[in-house]
């Protein structure tokens, strides 16, 4: 039945179920990001896209010395990815959903910070350099750990290396008054995947496209199964789609899992109204 399908989505509804179990990735970040994209492209050939990343790494590898240090590798990555292949940030259409689907980013060579960074980290790993994503607010940065200030790469702006002063200035421009060292600490791949999904959800909700937020929330619940607040968003999407029984089931599950939710009264009223409509 529909409520059960949404409460326990199949891999058709939430393709991340093929590579994420109990909130843990069973594969690389780039592979998971490509499975994420199957919510929009169900017939996507993930292996073909992975081969494209292998090809980029094959262009970088012969340009490196026998024992390259991290700055050398970063320099060659920037030359190949941003200069030769012309990957770039999509300043003109930043909020296009295609910027969040890794297959489109690989094909079009356009993206937002987090998806361009995913390409960058994937190629770096293939040529021997381990990079991590960070939780930098509003603008995803890539990190290489070293003594003192880490090497921080802004993939949206051609691989620019960010100084501490530039990071502080960017934060202040966004209205952050204080610095928190956690902004540039490494984050796990699951957190990066969640951030991609949050971006997509926000874009779809802004467009009032209810079917796609429904799919995206199902994906979020695979990555973050204990985030019960997402059940509320799912219930709203289902109600807007006219799937009233499924909406009631999700909203009641939200109420059971979040007994102290500040919007509890409003949700209870919504459930009663939906039940009245169901007769």
Fill in the keyword field for this structure.
279 residues, two-stranded antiparallel sheet, single chain, 53% helix, 5-stranded antiparallel sheet, 8% strand, 12 helices, alpha+beta, 9 strands
How would you describe this protein?
The protein is globular and about 70 Å long. Helices cover 53% and strands 8% of the residues. It has helices spanning 2-7, 29-37, 46-60, 70-84, 102-108, 113-126, 164-173, 189-206, 211-223, 229-240, 244-257, 264-278; strands spanning 20-21, 24-25, 88-89, 110-111, 132-134, 142-144, 151-154, 160-162, 186-187. The protein folds into 2 domains: 14-187, no CATH class; 230-279. It has a 5-stranded antiparallel sheet with strand order 8-7-6-5-9. A two-stranded antiparallel sheet has the order 1-2. A two-stranded parallel ribbon has the order 3-4. The relative contact order is 0.12. Helix 11 (244-257) packs antiparallel against helix 12 (264-278). It is an alpha+beta fold.
Detail the topology: elements first, then pairings.
Elements: H1 2-7, E1 20-21, E2 24-25, H2 29-37, H3 46-60, H4 70-84, E3 88-89, H5 102-108, E4 110-111, H6 113-126, E5 132-134, E6 142-144, E7 151-154, E8 160-162, H7 164-173, E9 186-187, H8 189-206, H9 211-223, H10 229-240, H11 244-257, H12 264-278
Parallel strand pairs: 3-4
Antiparallel strand pairs: 1-2, 5-6, 5-9, 6-7, 7-8
Helix pairs in contact: 2-8, 3-6, 8-9, 9-10, 10-11, 11-12
Summarize the structure in short.
This protein is of the alpha+beta class. The chain is 53% helix and 8% strand. The protein has helices at 2-7, 29-37, 46-60, 70-84, 102-108, 113-126, 164-173, 189-206, 211-223, 229-240, 244-257, 264-278; strands at 20-21, 24-25, 88-89, 110-111, 132-134, 142-144, 151-154, 160-162, 186-187.
């Amino acid at each position: 039945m529909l409520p059960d399908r949404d409460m326990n989505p199949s891999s058709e509804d939430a393709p991340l179920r093929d590579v994420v179990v109990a909130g843990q990735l069973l594969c690389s970040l780039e592979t998971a990001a490509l499975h994420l994209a199957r919510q929009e492209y169900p017939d996507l050939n993930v292996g073909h896209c992975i081969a494209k990343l292998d090809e980029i790494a094959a262009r970088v590898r012969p340009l490196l010395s026998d024992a390259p240090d991290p700055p050398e590798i970063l320099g060659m990555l920037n030359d190949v990815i941003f200069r030769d292949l012309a990957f770039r940030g999509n300043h003109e259409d930043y909020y296009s959903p295609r910027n969040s689907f890794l297959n489109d980013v690989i094909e079009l060579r356009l993206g937002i910070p987090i998806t361009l960074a995913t390409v960058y980290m994937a190629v770096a790993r293939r040529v021997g350099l381990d990079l991590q994503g960070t939780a930098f607010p509003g603008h995803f940065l890539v990190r290489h750990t070293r003594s003192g200030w880490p090497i921080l790469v802004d993939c949206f702006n051609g691989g620019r290396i960010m100084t501490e002063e530039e990071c502080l200035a960017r934060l202040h421009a966004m209205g952050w008054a204080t610095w928190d060292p956690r902004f540039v600490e490494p984050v796990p791949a699951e957190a990066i995947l969640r951030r991609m999904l949050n971006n997509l959800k926000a874009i779809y909700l802004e467009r009032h496209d209810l079917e796609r937020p429904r799919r995206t929330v199902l994906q979020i619940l695979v990555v973050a199964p204990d985030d019960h607040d997402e059940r509320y968003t799912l219930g709203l999407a289902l109600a807007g789609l006219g799937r009233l029984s499924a909406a009631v089931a999700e909203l009641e599950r939200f109420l059971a899992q979040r007994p102290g939710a500040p919007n509890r009264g409003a949700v209870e009223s919504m459930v009663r109204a939906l039940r009245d409509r169901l007769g």
